[in-house]
Amino acid sequence: MNTLVDETVVEELQTGGDEAIRLYVAACVERTAPLFVGLRAGEAGREADVDLYAAAVGDLWRTDHPLPDAVERARLLERFPELRPTEEASTGVVGSYTSLAGLVLRYALLANASGSADRAVSCGHAALAATDVLDRNLGGAAFRAEEHLLQARSVSGDAAGVWDASVSAGRERLRAALGSTAGGTR
Prior knowledge:
By secondary structure, the chain is mostly helical.
């Protein structure tokens, strides 16, 4: 499984400054958010988790400054069942998707707060892992290849174009995930 963030993207994150890092992680989260929000919405007892996730997605797009409560939000996120260490791995397709989407948000929040290129790269790795799972579950899909292209675009500095492309990609990934969970283990 090749989930490494492209070298050119890593270089851009290391030299592009805090705002470039914040744009990149916001875009990664936007593309994976539907995998969490869409698959956990309506689930009993998860309303607050879905609300926290959805609010963070919108707030991360304010890339001109770090979120003052990003670290606290990351701590709250770590209480999500998907991110709590257990002796058993997350079972089912939905658990895989939501765990990876949770990791993307966690790394995004930490990168937003710190301006750390390393945290941003971890965010990108988790986003690529999520698309790799989609590709494997759908046999022949090309979400990982698309994610590589969108990550490169995310360091371009054009927030409006990146947002549009990320929203569209996230919606398509949710549709695919819903198709892969139909009749499967939730």
